[in-house]
């Protein structure tokens, strides 16, 4: 078989990496190459951000080291039994691509994952070697995110954290039964053990940095994980519960959700069609409510339908408000920040503006309209000095009134 060119490898391995959603670069330490020292930066001008058709930012060189794999996870297009074109980079080839792309302002850094070749330790060593060459031999100061392998030796994973800004370990599926059924080579307790070890290393590094100026940094952007949505029978309630446990147990920076996508030559145990992408979006909204709006996991579950899934026609915040109408309306001139954050249509920025404005004057409905994006959504749930919703909050058809209108898009619209 003829040897593949770098471009051919890149085509195969960049496409194979598209299923991994956890490639955000937020939270990293600030680094730059001002003064002629090093290459790259993690902020500022000169970064060309691109967006995939589904809206994800792909400003990183997002690629696999290889799509060969000794594992046979049913949902993975790169599984051992899959009939896909295979390719493999050497660590030096990934380094060269990263530097060349960065110098052309195509990327702001590197997101590197891999299939499992030979064994977990060998693969993890290859991933670490890429980061080591970039950092030590080229003084690369851009962003590096390494996807680590929970089955690898903890010391090798620790080395990854010393070079990378962020590390991540995918829990893959929200339930142990789903993981056992669809990824028989993986073990939920082993994954959680790797997450816990990395969490401990991050905490120790932060503590050492407080006491010793030159203490080595360790994954300053933290760690993240990803769950596949719709590949098994897990409901949104199961996924929300799992995400909450992960946040609380391992202080994760982010939990990412990736809607299952049917793959060629799929296993018979997989669904025949993908879940609606809006389901993934609703899970991200629920994640936001837990992280920034003070909602408990149980409250998100209360917003779900009888089948355990979040409604698709309205967002989870509105779904909760409609189920617990006795909590409304709230007086925007007297309510606490926590109460205002529960009002559908009021985001954190709007609430901040309302709290600041009401220090100087009593707010009217027109004032609130100027401080939020959609007063129509807000009106049934608030009281101002000149507005009271009376029976509007209790209307049986309030859901249909506030649900986004379904529109048929025109294929050739100007």
From TrEMBL:
Kindly list the cofactors needed. Answer: [4Fe-4S] cluster
What is one Pfam family matched by this protein? Radical_SAM
Domain Elp3/MiaA/NifB-like radical SAM core stretches? 59-286
- Which Gene Ontology terms cover its molecular function? catalytic activity; iron-sulfur cluster binding; metal ion binding
Gene3D superfamilies hit by this protein: Aldolase class I, Photosystem II 12 kDa extrinsic protein
Q: Which UniProt keywords apply?
A: Iron, Iron-sulfur, Metal-binding, S-adenosyl-L-methionine
Q: Which NCBIfam families match?
A: rSAM_link_UDG (TIGR03916)
What protein is this chain from? Putative DNA modification/repair radical SAM protein
Q: Which organism is it from?
A: Altererythrobacter xiamenensis
